[in-house]
Design a protein that fits this description.
Number of helices: 15
Largest sheet: 9 strands, mixed
CATH topology of the largest domain: Rossmann fold
Shape: globular
Strand content: 15-25%
Number of strands: 23
CATH class of the largest domain: Alpha Beta
Length: 563
């Protein structure tokens, strides 16, 4: 961005004024049935206009119009829902609640040191003059507190586009955040402050950012608010060059990836050219613990590693025990990649909700140490900003390919893989090697997102499970078998940094190859999909076909022991 500070303020104001108009178009204000027995649903139909007419006839006004997925969010009584179903064939999903992926533990640092940029080779990129300039990251989170380091870049120029409040459908130039989570996450990616050693905190400190507030002070949100936030991001992406959407949250998987309304919106964003970076979730480390929207095969799903408080002693690094692991229910390898996510220092106002609850992890000024795949996702969003600043022409698929092809695999001293691909994906992200990588055509090659969204074709991945209960990737040999009973993965004698290899076939095959979704599970050799009823998925053994009993409040912000 070559504009001056004053120029930026003028531009910022004009954009905010423009997007406010857009916000009023995107969704209704929350006017709905106030009956105590009503429940919130996301409803779609092939004839969207008829659906709205039928709701109007029932005397119901939707709380959200979710045009991005041709749906509405609406509060209905059982009687109203039954009446609607008699009038029109509709698809019904509960308006689920989701919660953020943050943990709150660490060691107090009165003068926290910046270590993340060096751990992911971003310092080498900074030395070339690339600080992520000209790229905007959208943080779909709890909002943003525009503290120093977030409000301006390294040269003192304004870089904050304001905040869109998807809960109340409003736009403001300067956000006020109650939680602290959104500010913390954003600062990991774009903070332009220096630590006491002269090291920059943020991975992409000159990248612009916009807050998209869909989560409340407790870190909770509904599907409808999150989807409305995604829709708003797509409406303004050309105006503010929004190239990346960070999603540091996760919810339980309740359906195939293509059936979930939130996942549909995420796929729409990827299709529209926005790089979606999502956290793997903090329900690890058992298999099949990747949440929504991290289970979408197209996007970049990020797990977390931790350094045992020895930032530059790589021998004791390990995949964090809370980091969600794959495969997905459809057989895809997830996470795609991992990044630092243990006790990460980030900005957080002293009066934020999280700080008030856990003051022992605040430095007494503006920094807070927090762990989770939320933080790891923010690291990768910063890396993606550096990639796009270097080459703005890259598509989301090309960005994903470069990340996978250049990652550090966690290996033992004998060269064998220390962690399964279902735990580490391609390995630890490297900003420098991702930019240097010549690979561009190795991600999502066998998937077709247009056909997926149109319900013409759906896909499954190459993962399977053998007779011993071990997960593996078909066709890649014994090295890619995950013995889930092996608990010896402590990180000792592990080599993150010396294991960089030329691009190998597994990144292509294991993470991106897909097959058309198979309905005959008895003949496709996907062993874990047999014996669980017609839907063939472990987590759907008691699945309700009417899709209206998915009403569990999601709570993934659980406390974990420091590592």
């Amino acid at each position: 961005m070559s504009f001056t500070s004053n120029q930026n303020k003028i531009r910022n104001f004009s954009i905010i004024a423009g997007v406010f108009t857009l916000a009023m178009v995107i969704g209704f204000k929350s006017v709905a049935n106030t009956d105590e027995t009503s429940k919130s649903y996301i409803i779609s139909a092939k004839n969207f206009s008829v659906l709205k007419d039928n709701l109007k006839a029932l005397g119901v006004i939707p709380t959200h119009e979710l045009k991005i997925i041709d749906s509405v969010a609406v509060d209905l009584t059982d009687e109203q829902l039954s009446s609607l179903q008699q009038k029109q064939k509709v698809t019904i999903n509960t308006n689920h609640k989701v919660k953020l992926n943050g943990q709150t533990y660490g060691q107090r640092r009165w003068q926290p040191k910046s270590v993340v940029t060096e751990q992911v080779d971003a310092t080498y990129v900074h030395q070339t003059g690339n600080f992520g300039e000209g790229v905007t990251i959208g943080f779909l989170d709890t909002g943003l507190e525009h503290l120093s380091g977030l409000s301006t870049d390294l040269y003192g120029r304004d870089k904050a586009w304001g905040t869109y409040d998807a809960i109340n459908d409003t736009v403001s130039n300067h956000g006020i955040e109650e939680s602290g989570h959104g500010t913390h996450v954003a600062s990991i990616a774009v903070n332009s402050d220096y630590d006491s050693y002269g090291q920059i905190y943020g991975v992409a400190p000159n990248a612009a950012h916009v807050g998209i507030k869909a989560f409340d002070a407790e870190g909770k949100a509904t599907y409808a608010d999150v989807i409305r936030g995604i829709s708003w991001a797509l409406d303004v992406k050309e105006q503010i060059n929004l190239r990346i959407l960070n999603m540091s949250f996760s919810g339980p998987v309740r359906s195939n990836y293509w059936e979930d309304p939130l996942n549909k919106a995420v796929m729409k964003a990827w299709q529209a050219g926005v790089v979606v970076v999502a956290s793997a979730g903090n329900k690890g480390s058992a298999p099949m613990t990747i949440g929504v929207p991290g289970n979408v095969p197209y996007i970049i799903t990020v797990g977390a590693m931790t350094d045992d408080y020895t930032a530059f002693d790589y021998s004791d690094d390990k995949v964090a025990s809370f980091s969600g692991a794959g495969p997905t229910a459809e057989g895809f390898v997830k996470p795609d990649i991992i990044a630092p996510g243990g006790h990460i220092s980030g900005l957080m106002a002293f009066d934020s909700q999280i700080v008030l609850e856990h003051p022992e992890f605040h430095d007494g000024g503006r920094y807070f140490e927090m762990s989770g795949t939320s933080q790891a996702a923010a690291v990768v969003s910063g890396v993606v900003a550096l990639l796009l600043a270097d080459n703005p022409a890259l598509t989301p698929d090309q960005v994903k390919c470069k990340l996978l092809a250049s990652a550090y695999s966690a290996n033992n001293s004998d060269g064998s893989k220390r962690y399964s691909v279902f735990q580490q994906g391609a390995g630890l992200v490297s900003a420098y090697y991702a930019i240097e990588s010549a690979e561009t055509d190795c991600a999502n090659k066998t998937l077709d997102i247009a056909k997926d969204l149109n319900d013409e074709e759906h896909f499954s991945g190459p993962s399977n499970i053998n007779d011993d209960g071990n997960f593996y990737v078909e066709g890649l040999g014994e090295e890619y078998i995950w013995d889930t009973n092996d608990t010896s993965f402590s990180g000792d004698a592990m080599l993150w940094r010396t294991s960089l290899e030329p691009f190998s076939a597994w990144q292509d095959t294991a993470t991106t190859d897909a097959m058309l979704w198979r309905t005959n599970f008895e003949t496709d050799a996907m062993l874990w999909r047999t014996g669980f009823g017609t839907d063939g998925m472990l987590w759907r053994t008691s699945f309700e076909t009417d899709a209206m009993l998915w009403r569990t409040t999601i709570d993934i912000n659980s406390w974990v022991e420091p590592q």
